[in-house]
Amino acid sequence: MNCEQFKRSYSKFDGAANVIHWKDIETPEYASYSDHMQDCHECRDWFQTEQLKDWKIDASAYPCIHMAYHANYRCASHQDAWECPSSLIVYVDQYDEYGIPIRDGGTSYWKIDCCPWCGHALPQSKRELWMQKLRALGHDPMNHYDKIPAEYKSAKWYKDDHFPDLRLV
Fold this sequence. Notes:
The chain is mainly alpha-helical. Helices cover 35% and strands 7% of the residues.
């Protein structure tokens, strides 16, 4: 299969409401489609771009197409990315961090600094700044997470302008 054939096959296999699903890999056409996506970086990137359009995700809000795709990937079998073995990347907006989930039943992950697919640098983690700000506000983020204000449990604390820019010493 070449790239043009791959793109035409997308609507049959992945780009429509009544597509052939991953369970239907018995056909030679699907096997060729799948093999081409594994072997061709350009078509894999094109595929991920098309999926993001279908999911109505703005890829420009992410460091690269791969992080946009993998941070938003959701399979039909798992509601939670932490439970899905096909979910390769997690994004933790509270710290502005990307990571590779550790499948231990919790929400542990290995923080990554670069995209594993293209090497694009990812945002610098805000985890230390988060801890410093909370400590400056009188909170103990390590031992009393339940007492942390709700706005510090999401990206709100670093995205909203109304939070005081605390001088950290």
